[in-house]
Amino acid sequence: MDHEELARRLARAITALREAVGAEEVEVVGHSLGGLVARHVLESHEGARVRRLVTLGAPYLTGCLPERELAIFGSADLIIPPPRRLRGRSVIVEGCGHLGLLHHPIALRLVAAFLEQRDTEQAEAARAAA
């Protein structure tokens, strides 16, 4: 199964979740390939209902990240090494490996802080990072 089919399935799951709970938008956290697939959804027309995306150790295939994404990498990640130059809203957690991103206290604090931001704070942070 390719990433486009996975993205279609994720988009359908997001729609089902939104309908089940009555939410206009959702926030998505994806690890590794899951982050790459979620990024693909965010960049497509189906991503309009994703308020924010956090990727943990997700492959970075382009030079820029979506404005609504926080990309977190581990400095000791041997599977998806962190980028040499950070772009967009991205962070490297020192001493953290690929699976460690799922439970490292600093990574978890970064995820929580990003998801708790109000939309105006997010827009200001994106402008400052540009």
**Domains (count):** 1
Give the name of the CATH superfamily.
Alpha/Beta hydrolase fold, catalytic domain
User: What percentage of residues falls in helices of 4 or more residues?
Assistant: 40-55%
Outline the low-pLDDT stretches.
none
The helix tally amounts to 4
The rounded Rg comes to 14 Å
Q: What structural category characterises the helix and strand content?
A: alpha/beta
Let me know the largest β-sheet: 4 strands, parallel
Structure description:
The protein has 130 residues and is an alpha/beta fold. The protein has one domain: Alpha/Beta hydrolase fold, catalytic domain (Rossmann fold, 3-Layer(aba) Sandwich). Strands 1-2-3-4 form a four-stranded parallel sheet, with helices on both faces. Helix 2 links the parallel strand 1 and strand 2. Helix 1 packs across helix 2. The radius of gyration is 14 Å and the shape is globular. The termini are far apart. The model has no long low-confidence stretch (mean pLDDT 88).
List keywords for this structure.
130 residues; four-stranded parallel β-sheet; alpha/beta; 41% helix; 4 helices; 18% strand; Rossmann fold
Topology, pairings included?
Blueprint: H1 3-21, E1 26-31, H2 33-43, E2 50-56, E3 69-74, E4 90-93, H3 105-116, H4 119-129
Parallel strand pairs: 1-2, 2-3, 3-4
